Amino acid sequence: MNLRSSVLHVRPTKKDPMSLRLSLLCRTGPWAFQSRSIVVPFRFVCVKTRQQNQTSEDTEMAATKASLVYTIYRALSYGLSPLLYLHLRWRKILGLEHQLRWPERLGRASLPRPPGQLLWFHAVSLGEGVAAIPVIKECIRKKPELNILMTTTTASAFEVIKNRLPCEVIYQFAPIDTPNAVDAFLGYWKPNAIVLVESELWPNLIMDASRKGITLALINARMSTKSFKRWSRPWLLPLISLMLSKFSMIIPLSTMQAVNFQLLLAPPSIINSSGDLKFVVEEFVSEEEMRSIEDLKVQLACRKVWMASSIHKGEEEVILAVHEVLIQEHPNLVTIIVPRYTHHGQQIAHKLQKEGQSVALRSQGHKITPGTNIYVVDTLGELRHLYRITPIAVIGGSFLPGFTGHNISEAAAAGCAVLTGQHVGHFSSMISEMQQLNPLSVLQVSGQVELQEALEIVFRDNKVLEARREAAKQAYHCLSRGTVTRVWNLLDSQLLKHALS
Fold first, then answer.
1. Is NADP found in the keyword set (predicted)?
2. Residue 69 and residue 239: Cα distance in Å, rounded?
């Protein structure tokens, strides 16, 4: 379906007469049970209303303005190319780019292009890349004759995703958005269609692909609050409108994201729904990983365990403060800390060791002994397996202002009791959908005190813990069911039939 299958109500807000509240009720599809509302500045709705009554002169003026803004962007990106090249070299020195394959970021391919038609999937980082893998596998099952190219931008994503992709998929780093890099990349790979994941809206890539007659799709599409405000500025709105008009299909990850894209003047006819791909969790574990996780499970036997995952800088103070309180009541407690970035984990471990605490560091192969109460995981790609050995998962990136949360579906799929902070960004849609199905599925806490109180309750009352674990797992299964099939059917019917004809 698209938003034309929904009911959209607009009414003034009580607090701010210059704002309007948009309430949207979907009648069909995976969000049929949802009724949502969003408050937007009056000028955004005015822009949408004016669009419906634009004269040909207004349309021409908007197109001229968009073309001018893009021309400026293209000139700037071309002029800054030498500096961006130096920046990439510096990132390579710092270990942030692949030591051997970093030239791929300049559009220089390291693998041959096979003959035949080619579909390019692009995701910025690990989370988006993992979300795309089930769709890629479905594409291979349904169209085995089609060549698949997958790109990401970060080295950390590369190290994990390369082991999860089917062997027939070509994996490269994506080009930076400069005219030369994009032109070299498109000229070499010559994709028939491009599927961008989530929020990868780069002007040179989109405009160049459109000029070359390459069809474009945006799946699991989202627009953060910060990005939405930036693109809504008068001098950028024509550009984003022009870019979105080049897509043949946009599949937002939630109803509210669909509203955001329409407010940014995306054609309503290309907006469809399918559900959030980040709810889809695929099982992938090697024999070596399985042995390692099982060994860790044995070490944690008869211990009370909870895990804080995807922890960002500063959040470890919250987690460790809660740990200090809990361990007074539960001396056999083990707190597992999984930082978002591996070097942060090493910093945490070294600091605690200097303080005289017994800390085990996973990258060093340390064992959890009877005297170990903190286990720091400073490795990549193991998070979904670690959720299997802990009954409680606290999802980080959500406890300090400015953070935007992380995916909770992997923890829910593993049957963890799921807790998170209040600063969750676009993951608020995921949390809301799960809570609507079962209020016990996700617990949001405001900070250290509430987190400590919530953990004390689930440690004290096993019935409460089991109820939360079961609620999270059931909500996950309900929301993940059929999502990949819906996305594939939309890609096949509205993108590939045109691109491959």
1. no
2. 6
Burial of 345-364, coded b for 16+ CB within 10 Å and e otherwise, reads bbbbbeebeeeeeebbbbee
Q: Residue 372 burial (CB < 10 Å; 0-12/13-18/19+)?
A: middle
Q: Give residue limits of the domains in the chain.
A: 100-273, 287-480
* Topology annotation, domain 287-480: Rossmann fold (3.40.50)
User: Which residue is it, tokens 């190319």?
Assistant: 81
Right CATH for 100-273 from 3.40.50.11540, 3.40.50.11720, 3.40.30.10, 3.10.50.40: 3.40.50.11720
- CA-to-CA dists, residue 288 to 64, 165, 277, 285, 294, angstroms: 58, 18, 28, 8, 10
Q: What is the CA radius of gyration of the chain?
A: 24
- DSSP characters over 5-62: GEEEEEEE-SS-TTEEEEEEEE-SSTTTT-EEEEEEEHHHHHHHHHHHT--HHHHHHH
Active site (catalytic) residues:
128
Interior angle at CA 93, CA 87 and CA 99, nearest 5: 100
- Assign 447 to helix, strand or coil: coil
Residue type, 51: Q
Asked if the domains 100-273 and 287-480 are classified in one and the same CATH topology, the answer is yes
Q: Along the chain (501 residues), what's the average pLDDT of each consecutive run of 10 residues?
A: 42 43 41 42 44 62 89 96 95 91 96 97 93 95 96 91 93 97 98 95 97 96 91 93 96 91 93 89 73 91 95 96 95 96 93 91 92 93 91 97 92 96 92 95 96 96 96 94 92 89 78
